[in-house]
Each structure stands twice: as structure tokens, then as C-alpha cells.
Amino acid sequence: MNGIEVNNITKRFGDTLALNQVSLKFEPNKIYGLLGRNGAGKSTLLNIITNRLFPDEGDIKIEGLASVENDEAQKKVYLMSEKNLYPDSMSCREVFKWSLMFYPNFDLEYAKELAKQFGLDINKKVKTLSTGFSSIFKIVIALSVNTPYVLFDEPVLGLDANHREMFYKLLIKKYSHSPFTAIISTHLIEEVAMILENVMIIKNGDLLINESCETLLKSGYSVSGTAKQIDDFILDKEVISIDALGGLKTATIIGAVDKSTLPLGIEMTGLDLQKFFIKLTNEE
Amino acid sequence: MKLSAIYKFQLAEHKKSIIVFYLVIIAILAVVFTINIVSVLIPNQSNFSIQLSGIDLAPTIFLFVCGLNAFKENFQMSLQNGISRKSLFVNRIAVDLTLAVGMSLLNQIILFIGKSMALFSATIQYSSLLEELYGLRYAGHPNGLMLYLEIFLFYIFLFAAFLSIGYFITVAFYRMNKKQKIAYIVGFYILAFVAFPLIDELLYKLGIFSVLISEVLLRFLYAIMGVSAQNPYIAMISLLIISIIMRSLTWLLVRKTGIKN
Amino acid sequence: MQINFEDERPIFMQIAEGIEDAILTGAFAEEEQIPSITELSVNYKINPATALKGIAILVDEGIIFKKRGIGMFVAQGSVLKLRNKRKELFYEHYIKRLIEEAKKLGITTAEILDMVERGYEE
């Protein structure tokens, strides 16, 4: 059995239900987006997949192997977590060296090359890295580790626009040269949407959406025009947001559209994912 | 057999501190030796004598501290690199055995140097812990092969036991939150240094017990350490039992430990 | 070429049309190599599967052909092919709507032709 199968995972922290019967499947060699607001349960799920936390209920299979306390299964997966788990007093160079010991396919030369591209001084100790460079340091390892499954938890935290762009491009490059399964957990949907093949949205521990990105984009659209035109047009439609600017209005609508019924003067654009996401994950 | 990465990683962590530790020990011996030579050269100092005993006990404390520092980083490193708690636990035991045997060997060398110094100069007296504890057994054979062999074995068990105790404490602390930690530390001090001596004294003075509990405990300690029987092998068995108990308790704690945020 | 997320057209369509435009304007000449899937996806920060889907449309239409182990090339005669295709689309997209609107406003064929001539002159 290929891929990672998550079956009915439930996890509680005291009274809070962090994950509620979540089931999903990550297929080999695809790029997934795991989206949700802070505290939605994204990190918890990734931590359970990688045996860092135990689920209360349910089980996970990594290429058919049970994920819990199983070195054989876990060596196929690498999680770049928000929290740094490398020893503070170690230099980046030493961490690279040890990564090679733990993951025989770790590409040391590539890691050094990436560090240079990002301007990361690998002689620096892990604890002295700023938030941004700490993310870069972990990104470099994640891109060099060469496991079939690489999980990124908020990878662009603290990165400037330039470094973010570099990360996305390097990820795509790596992926197209030697495909692997990438799972990117983030709350910045707009930035990653074009990279993703599938999107999973988690809210308060529940899996809301699990779709291909293309289907998701087709699930709605935005229209703009004069206030009167838009008001008439949206009467019988499911509207998730309306923005008014003077006499102009823009509405985001869920559902398919028949372009021939579109009145003249109304302009149609694709679904505004960020708005869609905010609407979906908003507290009622 | 190919050594696992987590074994190497955990062992590597101790390399630097062990070197520093032995540099300090060697420095102490060197100072003692120098003072001794100087004092011999100066007349009217013939009464001067230095007694060195139990230097071989220092590594025990050192390894206890090593045990105390051996969990958090290794645990996090394991989880980051897909190593299970089980593998970490098994490899920790392997590392601790390596440390116990290795340090016991180094201990022999230090002991040999110390004893040689004592032979060389009459003003230095150097004896090992075993000679203190089991004086009768080794009386008259301060350099016997038997003594060296038994010291070697004894320390392996002693070191292993103290490593397990230190490790257990740090694992237990990792599982606790801040409040629990403080409660345990304060509680332990109050119990051991205030409540216990007080109750012990009270029960004895009131005539409820005819002996002090502390006295009984001490006798018990002598018995399990084979001091009463003058047999170090009894101590080794007791230390082994302590190690096994500590390791078992540690496993119960480690088994279900998750990552902390 | 521009990939726009807000565009109502799917991204793979935008990729395909972008390459078509580049061929029509001569940016990619016939028989010449075009960027690889990796280059396209890295450059536009899109999933390689999406780029592949866009390219596949062009391969199916015979606009682009693949040379195993070397890369992708613009096929001979693809400019002509594309022009014809676009002309057809031009009729579908513009002329049909133009005439629909003209009928509403009561504009005759002659009037339209006049207007077209005026447009070309300006």
C-alpha cells in the first residue's frame, strides 16, 4: 500500500478536541496543502503522523506500515516542525553531518549549496539563529533529506518575500527532478495555491475540505460591477462575501456559473481563495 | 554490527565532558605530586603527608550528572530523525554500558597512577573505595591482581546504577510540568532533611522504636553493599537490581512520552 | 506571459495559451526548443503536474512535440495551425457577440463593415 493513510484519528488535550475523527490519504508524489488557522490541529496531525504524539483513537499507515513506534515506517518521513528539535548548542554544520547519519540519502553537498544560496552561515549555532534563519535552516534540511514524504509545518515563518519565493521555487525544482510527497501546512493559502495539487482544510479539529486544487478553484467565482447589477445577480446565489467600494461591488459566490447568463457589464474572475478560506474557517 | 546513529549521537555528546573531567583529575594528581616533591625538598617538613582516598568515586558523581542531562536533547533528536522511543531507550542502555565499562577502565589507569605515586613517595597514601569498604578482604594486598579485577567489575555496576538513577530522575522531570517539579523537589527536601530526621528522633525518644530508623537503614545499606559480609559481589548484585528497577520505571515513563510544545 | 490566479481560466489553460501566444508572436520559433516543464513550473511557481497538463494540450494538438531525453520543440507549421485556430476562436468570441449586440441596436452589415474600416484606419 503506497502513501500515508490516516484513519479516524482523534486527539484530545485535556478538554480540547484537537482532532476529531480525521481520515485522509496522502498519495505518493503529490504536493498537498494542509490549511487551517492557528490552532486548527494541523501541527497535531503532523506530529501524530511522525510518532511525536500518540493519537487517542485511530491509526496511521505509512506505505502500509503502522506509524507508531516504528523506525522502519518513520525513516520514510521527515517533518520540518515549527519548533526546533535540534540541540541548541550544535552548529548547523554539525546538524547536517548528523542528518546524514540518520538519513543515508541526505545530500550534504546540496544542503551546503542551499545554505549558501539562502545566505545561511552554517558555522552558526542553532540557538543563535533568528526566526527567519531558523526556518531557512530547517528548510535546507527538509529539501536535502530525500525521504519519500516531507512534511513542512509553517515553512515560511519569518521569511522575507525574497526567501519565500526562493523556497517555493526550490521546492518545485526539487519536486520535478525527483518527485516526492510534500505536505505543506500553512495559513497563507494564496501564496501556495498554485503549487498545490490537493488541498485539505482543517477547522477546530475537523476536516472540512479534501479536494484537488483545481476542483476547489472551480467551486466558485467572483463577480464585480455596479451595486445594482451585483445585487440583482446574486439574489438566487450562495454568496460568501461582498465588498463595496463606492457604487461598485464585488461578490464571491459558491457554485458553477453559466457564462452566457452573465449580464453585460458584470466582470467575472476566478474564486478568491483567501476569502473563501477565511469564510470557511471563520468562527460563527 | 553497524552501530545505530542514535547510539553514536548519544555517545558523542559525552566525549567532551569526559575529556574535561579526566583533565581535572589528572591535574589534581599532578598538583598533589608536585606539592609532595616540593615538600620533600624542603627540610623540616618530614611530617607532611597527603591522603588521597576515594578519587575513584568522583566518576560516579560525574556519571550521575551525565545521566541527569541525557534525556531531553536526545529524545528530541530521536523524534526529529524518526527514531522510536524504544530504539532510543535500548540504545541509551547500550551507551550507558559503554560509558560504565569505559570509565571503569580509565578508573583503573588513574588508580594505577595514584598507587604508583604512593609507592614512589611514602608521604602519599592512596587507596581506592573498595579498600575502604572491604578493608579486611584486601588487607595486605594493596596491589593484588584480585583487587584490580574486582575494582573494575565493581565500578561497572556502580557507574551503571548511578547512570540509571540520574536518567530516571531526568525522564521523570521531563514528564512533569513546572508546578509538579517544584512540588517534588521541595517535597523531597522536606521529607529527607526535616520530616524524616524529626520523626526518627521523636519515635526513638518516645520509646516507640528501640532503634533509630536511620540506624536500621544504614545497616541495611551495609548489608546490600556486602560491607558486613566483606563481599563486593553482593554489592554488584544489589547495584544490578537497582539498575534494572530504575530502567523499568524509566521505560514506563518514556513509552508514552510525547513532544512538548 | 502572465499567470494570473484570479483569472477565471484554469492555470493549465493559461499556460497553454501563454505558450501559444509566444509561438504566434515568434518568441518561440518553429523547430525551436521551448522551456522544460521544470523551468516553466519553477518560473511561474506552479505545480509541475499543472504545467504538464497545459503542455499536454499543445502536444495533443500537434503544436509541440517531444524529443525523448532532449526536450520539447515547436512543431513545423504550428504558427499556421494556431492562426487558424485563433481565427475560429475570434469568430466565436468576438464576431458572434458583435453581431448579437449589433442586432439589438439595429446596426446593418454595411454599417458594421464601415465601422471596421474606420477601426483599422485609426
Automatic annotation (TrEMBL), chain A:
SMART domains: AAA. Residues 4-229 form the ABC transporter domain. GO terms for molecular function: ATP binding; ATP hydrolysis activity. It holds the Pfam family ABC_tran. Keywords: ATP-binding, Nucleotide-binding. The keyword ATP-binding applies. It comes from the Bacteria. PANTHER family: ABC TRANSPORTER, ATP-BINDING PROTEIN, SKFA PEPTIDE EXPORT ATP-BINDING PROTEIN SKFE. This is ATP-binding cassette domain-containing protein.
Automatic annotation (TrEMBL), chain B:
It comes from the Bacteria. Keywords: Membrane, Transmembrane, Transmembrane helix. The keyword Membrane applies. The chain crosses the membrane at residues 20-42, 48-71, 92-113, 145-170, 182-199, 234-254. This is Uncharacterized protein.
From TrEMBL, chain C:
Pfam families: GntR. Keywords: DNA-binding, Transcription, Transcription regulation. Residues 9-77 form the HTH gntR-type domain. It comes from the Bacteria. PROSITE patterns: HTH_GNTR. GO terms for molecular function: DNA binding; DNA-binding transcription factor activity. PANTHER family: GNTR-FAMILY TRANSCRIPTIONAL REGULATOR, HTH-TYPE TRANSCRIPTIONAL REPRESSOR YTRA. This is GntR family transcriptional regulator.
